[in-house]
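queue> holo job accepted (iron/sulfur cluster)
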Amino acid sequence: MQVALKIWRYDAITGERALREYEIDAPEEATLLDCLDIVKDQVDGSLAFRKSCRMMICGSCGMRMDGAAVLACKTRMYEIAESGHVPVISAMGNLPIVKDLVVDMDPFWGKIRAVQPWLEPGYSDPGEKEHVVSQERMDVIHKESLCIMCGCCVSECNSMEADPDFLGPAALAKGMRFVGDPRDRATVERLESYSGEHGIWDCTRCYFCNERCPKGVDPRDAIAKLGAEAVKEGIDSDMGAKHAKWFVTSAKTTGWLRETELVPKTQGVAKSLKEVTFAMGLLKHGKVPPPFPPHVAKHVGEARALYDLVQEQGRDGASGITQAEKALGNLEHAGDGGDSAARGPYGSGSFAKPFLPGEEPTV
Ligand code: SF4
Ligand code: SF4
Ligand code: FES
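queue> job finished
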């Protein structure tokens, strides 16, 4: 097949940047990485890009196609070439470009190091027997363990674009991999560290990292798990944590999000006084419902029962999110004959099935 590519070339020494177009003949099964290899071998040997495994394992070949991060070795070109589209290939975002499609990964590794990506078992003598961990506990970090550290999530992160010091999706997913590991003994210290400035609460929840991760790690979900675990441990001094807690309290007490109280509950009374003029303007234009008497939803009892259920069954924290992940996965793959369809989100080796107040728990 004939494949046409436009590639952003960059020379860090001269600062020269140019969009060059290449046309090559490639086999129908060729990936983007194969096509780049052909360009380098047959057309222009000066083209720079990283690669190693060619099978989505090493994480070297992250780059952007038409502005979105991809693994070049995972991206098949047949349909793109058939459609006549000429994709634009460029280096990943949020990392300095060294040459053409090669970025400097030092800032990426610095963030990974900052979350202390190693197990802190709390003992120096490993003993003679192995430490067995149940499948249920490992399920909590199953997705986080799949990370190949390619940087595609970092490339697309809005918060990192605004704040280069933000720990970012890859490092936080790695952090969750250890927070959720039952063998780790530094959970509280980790959660305190990750909850600080530039940490978990600075994520804007844009979900681009989930969308672009080529391995299904879903870093945003990992950050949600960290947030849930931090609140569960009482690490909630950050405004983001207070914000999340108020959502829960508000839903539990009235079944609605009481936005008029959101600012004082999150920022404190002193800081919210500064916003009084702004709030009065909103009130005048009918944009804010009067805080008194509070509007209580007709079926608020259901919201309260749901809250009690989560508490009673210990589904707060990361395990509740994991359970939802498994249930969604089961829905998505139900009937495909695979393991997840056979196993389901509950039952042996997994979580107990949810039960309503008054019902008997079933396994
Ligand atoms: S979370 Fe996904 S996108 Fe991010 S570094 Fe890991 S594998 Fe790559
Ligand atoms: S969801 Fe958060 S971590 Fe993920 S890309 Fe958006 S801002 Fe970054
Ligand atoms: S070359 Fe290893 S992940 Fe693409």
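queue> Residues 39 and 237 are 53 Å apart (CA to CA).
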